[in-house]
Design brief:
The protein has seven helices and 17 strands. The chain is an alpha/beta fold and 322 residues long. It has two domains: 170 residues, 3-Layer(bba) Sandwich (FAD/NAD(P)-binding domain), CATH 3.50.50; 145 residues, 3-Layer(bba) Sandwich (FAD/NAD(P)-binding domain). This is CoB--CoM heterodisulfide reductase iron-sulfur subunit A family protein.
């Protein structure tokens, strides 16, 4: 049975940042249930125009590069059983048994499953995209069809701020990634008109000046559409404005999707018997040697995730006495 000081569960940027920082302070092992490291962050694109928009993607890429070469890791495995013992944990994975003094859960978040909102028609139409789909298109350079669009609608809070689904929290990241996408699209296609449908606007964090500039470049409606309808020429957005139902036409619609806890985060919370909150996230307090980090505890952007991981690594280093 292999023994380590710290077992990090989750190979996204939070887990990689913690594991990298602790390499010289103890025996650290990282487990990632997928076949590769990086998590959701590696699917995101740098959104810089003629200036950096402070999206954090470049910083995330550096964390992943450092982790690949500097962190002892096992991919394709995840904890399946846990026994608390004096001085730590005995953990059984898919293929082995491990003993760990401390455990870090950095199992992350995933985009809200948009198909749970059938009124938004996602997955059944060609002109309705999620923000994460647009991120991937930007990363791959596949934006040809957007060059033909002259009007776009961004719909915020998809999967957040929804008490009916017990998702009343703000995902925090949606406004920021949407505004950065707006800035990039306007830079590439200056003739496009972009409208922004939201309950409010969150522009805190890195790059506030650029985010405010992007916000000033769109027409904002403080209301969320209650239905979409697509035909061969575009998408009709049905929305209530000033107490009256109205409709507007666009070439395409982008759904800014919020974050919920990943299946891995929810499974680890149950396995380690940790309290959870809205969205399935782990309550962010240490529980007798178990620490949750990054978006396993709630939605946050790349920069905040890395900073939190760095702070946790300092705390764990002190506990290890090194």
């Amino acid at each position: 049975m292999e023994r380590v000081d710290v077992l990090v569960v989750g190979g996204g940027i939070a887990g990689l940042a913690v594991a990298s920082a602790l390499q010289e302070k103890g025996d650290v092992l990282l487990l990632e249930e997928k076949a590769s490291l990086g998590g959701l962050a590696v699917e995101l694109s740098c959104k810089a125009t003629d200036r950096c928009l402070r999206c954090g993607v470049c910083r995330a890429a550096e964390v992943v590069r450092k982790g690949w070469f500097g962190v002892e890791n096992i991919t394709g495995e995840s904890p399946r059983a846990v026994v608390r013992e004096k001085g730590g944990f005995r953990i059984t994975t898919d293929r082995r048994e491990l003993a760990a003094r401390l455990v870090v859960l950095a199992t992350g978040a995933v985009p809200f499953p948009v198909e749970e909102f059938p009124q938004y028609l996602w997955g059944r139409k060609e002109r309705i995209f999620t923000g994460f789909e647009l991120e991937r298109r930007l990363k791959s350079g596949n934006l040809e069809e957007f060059a033909a669009f002259r009007s776009l609608a961004f719909v915020q809070c998809v999967g957040s701020r929804n008490a009916r689904k017990r998702l009343g929290y703000c995902s925090q990241v949606c406004c920021r990634y949407a505004l950065r996408l707006v800035a990039n699209l306007r830079f590439r296609f200056p003739e496009v008109r972009i409208d922004f449908y939201s309950m409010d606007l969150q522009v805190l964090g890195d790059g506030q000046e650029a985010l405010r500039d992007a916000a000033h470049s769109v027409f904002r409606y403080r209301s969320l559409p209650f239905a979409l309808q697509e035909d061969g020429d575009g998408v009709t957005v049905f929305v209530e404005v000033d107490g009256k139902a109205t409709k507007r036409r666009y070439d395409a619609v982008v759904l800014s999707v919020g974050l919920v806890a990943s299946p891995g985060t929810q499974r680890m919370a149950e396995l380690f018997r940790l309290p959870q909150r809205e969205g399935g996230f782990i309550v962010p307090h240490p529980q007798d040697g178990v620490f949750a980090c990054g978006t396993a505890t709630g939605p946050k952007d790349i920069t905040s995730t890395i900073c939190e991981a760095e702070r946790l690594s300092e705390e764990l280093g002190a506990l290890l006495g090194r």
